[in-house]
């Protein structure tokens, strides 16, 4: 019996694996985030392990375009040879690395170290850029620290009110919904989504309510809510004076956003805006008088925009005006997405980052990490460039010529996918490590077969900043190898300075040292206590007392209770601005997820029961909008704009607004939603505009 966690999302539901030799049986485990429940993806996760399409040997592209199996020695020699020759011709930045929020902490840490020391490149970034970067930029600005939920998930169980913006947990993390039972009973769940999503239904069909704004107008809506709180003197002025800075600028920034103007832009009626602001302020006051706590939570719906960071700032401002963050009366949190989306953004996969959430441009930070790595700080490269820029410049005069991808499928999941496809084709050499031949792996020169969740040891950090153990229950198939082993072998061939252990426990021991004294400090965590079920949340400095009692929360379960992480200990209100103009009248496309599929779909499209329920891409469209475009239910539709065309079957739904259609991004080739998305990025986080594009709709005649 192995106690481990689901391979997919950041809820990291507890799973038990029983390996009878003949069969591997998976069941839900009574773990705090899921209480024994799993969603359909989690339940069917063993299908990934036994899948017939599992990669079993390294594959090398032949001159006729086909792949042929080769030995590991040959594969590793070839990577080293290519990296060295390209580096000597074009400099170290000509070789780039792309990581992932799916990787364990140990792999993420080693990938960052490998890029800086073995490849000597600054060109490293990762798919978390497409996921948590705006949330991270916003929380860093406000609090000086980025941990998605600065409190345990179980704190939500007692909430009086939760304002949930752009998150659809009922589909994306179904067991999360149990933490909303009480707030729903109390009539306090307020969901903000242009779609009547499964989560919006939880509020609209209970005693809570659903605000259904025009897509990409959340910033205006939040400014409008803050306006009401200030104009009606509902803010917590004692808290603001004691714990925040920046109130005057904030006051000026929301002055123009009276409810009627906000309503004209967002489409949310003025009385709904007033009602929401008053209800939140009332609940927050009650919470501080011994009542139940109040939370503001955000998801990708408000973050994946070219103004995502400002929108996160506006959400945090509202929470601060209500006096919530850093108190037991509630707080602000962002719901991390990928399995290790939290840990993945702490250990140095970001282009400007070193382990422990340190800054690569800070001389003291460089010196600390260089010491742990046993190298001169001078040899650690400086900051690189973020994901969209890294990918789009590949094969150009300023871009890398060789790329290694570990744990991402950007041909499907990056914005303006046609450009990404072209960029990968411009490379001299593309290496993709995966367990399946993803659409991106299919473009590679060399494919490396790697280990999956139930075949490897390591740690993951879930959406609450809690550190968990991933445990091996079975042996890997064929020649599939651990990525730690791959980095260790390649480091030798590249004569890298420093050590690259293939053993996860050893890498974790080093990660602890590298993180010590940093923001995300893991130095007091040890595997034995994690194995015994200790609840440990970072920061957990060396010497922390750890109890394995299930009632004990170790490390820092609740952040900011004494002070925020900025030098003055205060939270910063950030004045943000939005255009006071109505959005254009074209059809808006929003994108997101389905319950059955995970991300680019590489994994879940291969699981029969998931693929059978949701076999192909569907365009969700309001029946009246469909009528206006002469589109009938089930008909194939060309969804187009200047960047490309996606072909999808219409699915009529009154859950949609009249001016908005929805596409999930889980499907490949002509079904790829990202053929339409805009590669413009947020100025602070470099997050692309995934969630909103303008499109036109054309039914394909004769097709039904
Ligand atoms: N089934 C499934 N679960 C997953 C994943 C998956 O791929 N499939 N992926 C995991 C990952 S990596 C992540 S990041 C999380 C994401 O989890 P969520 O953030 O819950 O997922 P999304 O569906 O991307 O977006 C949430 C909602 O945002 C809404 N939205 C779109 N545009 C706007 C807007 O302008 N304003 C507002 N207010 N809302 C808008 C969409 O209608 C959608 O209902 O899910 C995780 N869980
Ligand atoms: N239009 C639109 N686009 C989006 C989004 C959206 O809402 N709308 N959401 C964005 C978000 S939030 C995210 S997180 C990204 C995700 O998009 P991707 O980065 O493409 O993520 P995955 O589909 O999870 O791809 C991971 C790949 O890595 C493999 N893999 C998993 N674990 C490992 C491992 O440990 N090692 C290796 N080597 N491989 C592994 C899987 O088999 C899969 O092929 O998509 C983004 N793209
Ligand atoms: S909610 Fe997330 S972690 Fe839980 S079973 Fe589903 S995919 Fe796995
Ligand atoms: Mo994500």
Automatic annotation (TrEMBL):
CC annotations in GO: membrane
Domain 4Fe-4S Mo/W bis-MGD-type span(s) in chain numbering: 1-51
Keywords for the protein's UniProt record, in alphabetical order: 4Fe-4S, Iron, Iron-sulfur, Metal-binding
Pfam family, one: Molybdop_Fe4S4
Single biological process term from Gene Ontology: respiratory electron transport chain
A molecular-function term among this protein's GO annotations: molybdopterin cofactor binding
SUPFAM superfamilies attached to this UniProt entry: ADC-like (SSF50692), Formate dehydrogenase/DMSO reductase, domains 1-3 (SSF53706)
Domain of life: Bacteria
PANTHER family the UniProt entry points to: NADH-QUINONE OXIDOREDUCTASE SUBUNIT G (PTHR43105:SF10), RESPIRATORY NITRATE REDUCTASE (PTHR43105)
Protein name: Molybdopterin oxidoreductase family protein
Taxonomic source organism: Glutamicibacter ectropisis
Phylogenetic placement of the source organism: Bacteria, Bacillati, Actinomycetota, Actinomycetes, Micrococcales
């Amino acid at each position: 019996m192995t106690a481990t966690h689901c391979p997919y999302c950041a809820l990291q539901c507890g799973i038990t694996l029983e390996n009878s030799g003949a069969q591997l049986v998976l069941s839900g485990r009574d773990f705090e985030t899921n209480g024994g429940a799993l969603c359909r993806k989690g339940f069917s996760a063993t299908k990934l392990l036994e899948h017939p399409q599992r990669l079993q040997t390294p594959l090398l592209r032949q001159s006729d375009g086909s792949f042929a199996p080769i030995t590991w020695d040959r594969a590793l020699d070839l990577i080293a040879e290519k990296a060295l020759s390209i580096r000597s011709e074009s400099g170290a930045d000509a070789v780039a690395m792309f990581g992932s929020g799916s990787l364990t902490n140990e792999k993420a840490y080693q990938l960052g170290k490998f890029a800086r020391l073995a490849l000597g490149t600054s060109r490293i970034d990762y798919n978390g850029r497409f996921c948590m970067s705006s949330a991270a930029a916003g929380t860093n600005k406000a609090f000086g620290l980025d941990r998605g939920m600065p409190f345990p998930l179980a704190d939500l169980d007692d909430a009086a009110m939760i304002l949930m913006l752009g998150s659809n947990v009922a589909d994306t993390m179904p067991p999360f919904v149990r933490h909303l039972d009480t707030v729903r009973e109390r009539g306090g769940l307020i969901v903000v989504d242009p779609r009547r999503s499964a989560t919006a239904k939880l509020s609209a069909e209970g005693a809570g309510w659903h605000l259904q704004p025009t897509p990409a107008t959340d910033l205006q809506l939040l400014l409008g809510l803050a306006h009401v709180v200030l104009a009606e003197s509902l803010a917590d002025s004692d808290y603001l004076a004691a714990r925040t800075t920046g109130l005057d600028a904030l006051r000026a920034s929301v002055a123009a956003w009276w409810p009627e103007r906000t309503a004209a832009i967002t489409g949310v009626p003025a009385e709904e805006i007033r009602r929401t602001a008053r209800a939140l302020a009332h609940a927050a006051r009650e919470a501080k008088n011994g009542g139940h706590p109040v939370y503001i939570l955000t998801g990708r719906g408000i973050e994946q925009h070219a103004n995502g960071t400002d929108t996160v700032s506006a959400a945090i401002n509202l929470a601060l005006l209500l006096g919530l963050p850093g108190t037991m009366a509630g707080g602000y949190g962002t719901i991390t997405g990928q399995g290790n989306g939290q840990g993945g953004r702490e250990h140095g996969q970001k282009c400007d980052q070193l382990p422990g959430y340190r800054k690569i441009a800070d001389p003291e930070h460089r010196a600390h990490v260089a010491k742990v790595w046993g190298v001169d700080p001078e040899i650690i490269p400086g900051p690189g460039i973020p994901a969209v820029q890294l990918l789009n410049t590949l094969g150009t005069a300023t871009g890398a010529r060789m790329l290694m991808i570990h744990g991402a499928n950007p041909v499907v999941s990056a914005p303006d996918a046609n450009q990404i496809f072209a960029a990968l084709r411009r490379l001299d050499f593309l290496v993709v490590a995966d367990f399946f031949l993803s659409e991106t792996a299919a473009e590679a020169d060399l494919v490396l077969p790697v280990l999956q969740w139930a075949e490897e040891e390591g740690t993951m950090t879930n959406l609450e900043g809690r550190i968990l153990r991933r445990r091996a229950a079975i042996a890997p198939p064929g020649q599939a190898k651990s990525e730690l082993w791959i980095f260790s072998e390649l480091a030798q061939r590249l004569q890298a300075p420093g050590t690259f252990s293939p053993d996860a426990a050893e890498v974790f021991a080093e990660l602890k040292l590298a993180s010590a004294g940093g923001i995300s400090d893991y130095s007091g965590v040890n595997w034995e206590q994690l194995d015994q079920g200790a609840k440990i949340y970072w920061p957990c400095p060396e010497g922390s007392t750890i109890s394995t009692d299930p009632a004990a929360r170790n490390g820092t379960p609740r952040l900011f209770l004494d002070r925020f992480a900025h030098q003055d200990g205060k939270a910063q209100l950030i004045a943000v601005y939005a255009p006071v103009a109505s959005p254009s009248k074209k059809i808006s496309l929003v994108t997101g997820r389905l319950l059955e599929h995970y991300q680019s779909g590489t994994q879940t499209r291969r699981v029969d029961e998931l693929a059978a329920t949701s076999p192909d891409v569907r365009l969700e469209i309001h029946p009246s909008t469909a009528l206006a475009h002469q589109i009938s239910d089930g008909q194939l539709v060309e969804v187009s704009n200047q960047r490309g065309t996606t072909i999808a079957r219409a699915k009529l739904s009154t859950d949609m607004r009249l001016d908005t259609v929805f596409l999930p991004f889980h499907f490949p080739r002509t079904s790829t939603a990202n053929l339409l998305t805009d590669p413009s990025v947020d100025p602070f986080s470099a997050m692309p505009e995934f969630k909103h594009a303008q499109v036109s709709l054309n039914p394909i005649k004769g097709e039904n």
